[in-house]
C-alpha cells in the first residue's frame, strides 16, 4: 500500500470525507445565515437551535408518526421553516428599525429558550436515529471506503447549496430578493410585498438549517445541544467568508470543513481550533473577509 | 445603542452628579450591612458578577461594542489566579493581580483582532476567539480540563487577614468590587470616556475630528478585559474553584443578560442586573434546564419591550435621570 506524506491514503481520504461532511453542514448553515442577513440585516443566533430542531423533527416524525427519513427530509424543514416564519411575524419584525445588535441578542435568547425546552423534555444524552435501510453499508473505492449515507449527505448538500445559489442569482424571485436587499423601499414602491418576502426569506433560511439537521441526525446523535457549538464555528466561517456573497458562503463552508479534516490527520490537537486560527489570520490579512464587502 | 446624554453639565464640569453620589452611598450602606442578612457566599457571587457586568458595560454601554467573548477574560483571570494561589503559592493579592495581567494581555490580542471589524462582525469575532480560548482551556494541562482547578487556598490577605473567614472574605471582595466600580466610573467620566462616547454615537465623525479610534477602542477593550479578569480572579479565590464553566460561551451570554437587564450604558444597572440574575439562578437551580429557558425568556423580553433595562426605566420614571 502506498502512502501520502507518511499517512495511509485510507486514513487521509477518510478524514477528508469527514471534513467535507462537516463542511457541507457549515456551508448549508452559513448559506442560510447569509441569506437571512442579506434580507433582514440580522445575524440569526438561533440558527444552531433550528438545526437541532430539524434533527428532532426527524426523530419525532419517526417515533410518533412512523414517518421515515425521506418524509422527514421533506416535512422537517417545512415544520421548522413555518416555526421560523411565526417567530419572524410575531417578534423579529419589531426589531428591524433598531440597532442590528438587538437582533443578535433576541435570537440568542430564542436559542436559549429552544435549547432549554428540548433539554428539559429529552435530556442531554442524545437520541439515536438510524441510517435509512437502503443507504447502510458502503463500497470500497480502492483508495478509500465510502459509506453510502455520507456520500448521499455530501451530494445532497451540494445540490441544495447550488440550487439556492441558482434561485438567488438566476431567477426572477431571486432578483426580487436581491433588489429587496439593496433597497426595500423602492422595491415596495414597485408593488412587491416586501414584508412577505422578508418573512419567506427568514423561513427559507431557517428551513435550510432544519434540513441540515435532518441530514445530520443519522450521523451525529440527536441532541438538544448539537447546534450550540456548531453555530459558533459557523460564525467563524461567516467572518472568514463575509456575508456578502452566496457563493462565497458555500465555498468557504466546504473549504474550511476540508481544512479541519486535514488538520485531524496531520495535527489532531488543533482540529477543534483550526477554523478560529484561520479566522484570526484572515482578519490580519484581509479584515473584510475573503468575499466580503463590508469593512 | 440608546443612551441619552443626560447630566451633560455635570460631566463637563468634571463633577459627579448628585443623584449618583446619593445612590452610591445607599448602595455602599446596603452592601456593608448585607452579610448580616444574607449568606456571604451568595453575596460574594453577586459582587463578582456585578464587577464582571460593570466591566462588560464599559464596552457595550460606552463604546457601543458588543463583545460575545468576555467569558475568555473572566475565565482566564480565574484560571490564572487559581493556579497562582495553588501551585505557585502566591498570596491572594498577587494571585488576583496575575489573573488581571493575563486577562489584560488576552484583551490586547483578542481586542486587536476584533476591532478590525465592526458591529455584528465584531460580536461574532469575539465569540469565535473566545471559543478558541475555551478549547485551549479544555486541552491545556494546567487548567485541569474537565475537573478544573479545585481546592484553591484563599490564603492570607497581605499576610495578615485570614480570608478563610467568610465575613473577612466578603469585605475583601466588596473592596475589590468598589475599586473596579469606581475605576469604571472614573473612566466613563473622564475626557477619555467622552471620546469613547463620541465613537459610540458617531464613529465617522470621531475619525474626522482626528481621534485615532482604533487606539481608543483597543484601550477600552483592554481595560474591560482586565476588570473582567479581576472579577474572575476574585471569584476563583472565593469559590476556591476555577472551571470550564467560567470560560464557556454561556458565561459570555450571562454577562450580556445581566447588563441588558440592568440597563445598557447605565452606571448602576449592571450591578442590579447581576444581583437579579444570580438570585434567579439560586432560586431556579433545582429546576434544571428551566434556568436556561428563563434566561432566554428574559433576553427576549428585554429586547422586545424593555430595552432600557431595570435601572434605565427607573431613571426615566425619576425624571429622565441617568443612573
List the helices and strands and how they pair.
The complex is a heterodimer of chains A (295) and B (323).
Chain A: H1 9-40, H2 47-65, H3 69-90, H4 100-122, E1 138-140, E2 145-147, H5 148-170, H6 172-182, H7 184-189, H8 194-216, H9 228-241, H10 246-266, H11 274-285
Antiparallel strand pairs in A: 1-2
Chain B: H1 8-12, H2 18-33, H3 40-62, H4 71-86, H5 92-114, H6 119-139, E1 156-157, E2 161-162, H7 166-188, H8 191-201, H9 203-208, H10 213-239, H11 249-262, H12 269-284, H13 290-305, H14 309-317
Antiparallel strand pairs in B: 1-2
Helix pairs in contact in B: 3-7, 3-10, 3-11, 3-12, 4-5, 4-10, 5-6, 5-10, 7-10, 8-10, 11-12, 11-13, 11-14
A few lines on this structure:
The complex is a heterodimer of chains A (295) and B (323). Chain A is mainly alpha-helical and 295 residues long. In chain A, 70% of the residues lie in helices and 2% in strands.
Describe the protein:
The complex is a heterodimer of chains A (295) and B (323). Chain A has 295 residues and is mainly α. Helix content of chain A is 70%, strand content 2%. Chain A is built from 11 helices and 2 strands, in the order H-H-H-H-E-E-H-H-H-H-H-H-H. Chain A has helices at residues 9-40, 47-65, 69-90, 100-122, 148-170, 172-182, 184-189, 194-216, 228-241, 246-266, 274-285, and strands spanning 138-140, 145-147. A two-stranded antiparallel sheet of chain A has the order 1-2. With 323 residues, chain B is mainly α. Chain B has a single domain, classed as ABC transporter involved in vitamin B12 uptake, BtuC (Orthogonal Bundle). Chain B has helices spanning 8-12, 18-33, 40-62, 71-86, 92-114, 119-139, 166-188, 191-201, 203-208, 213-239, 249-262, 269-284, 290-305, 309-317, and strands spanning 156-157, 161-162. Chain B has a two-stranded antiparallel ribbon. In chain B, a hairpin with a 3-residue loop joins strand 1 (156-157) and strand 2. In chain B, helix 5 runs antiparallel to helix 10 and helix 11 crosses helix 12 (269-284). The A-B interface holds A 43, 91, 94-95, 98-102, 104-106, 108-117, 119-120, 228-229, 232-233, 235-236, 238-239, 269, 272-273, 275-277, 279-280, 283-284, 287, 294-295 and B 1-2, 66, 113-114, 116-121, 123-125, 127-129, 131-132, 135-136, 139, 249, 253, 256, 260, 288-300, 302-304, 307.
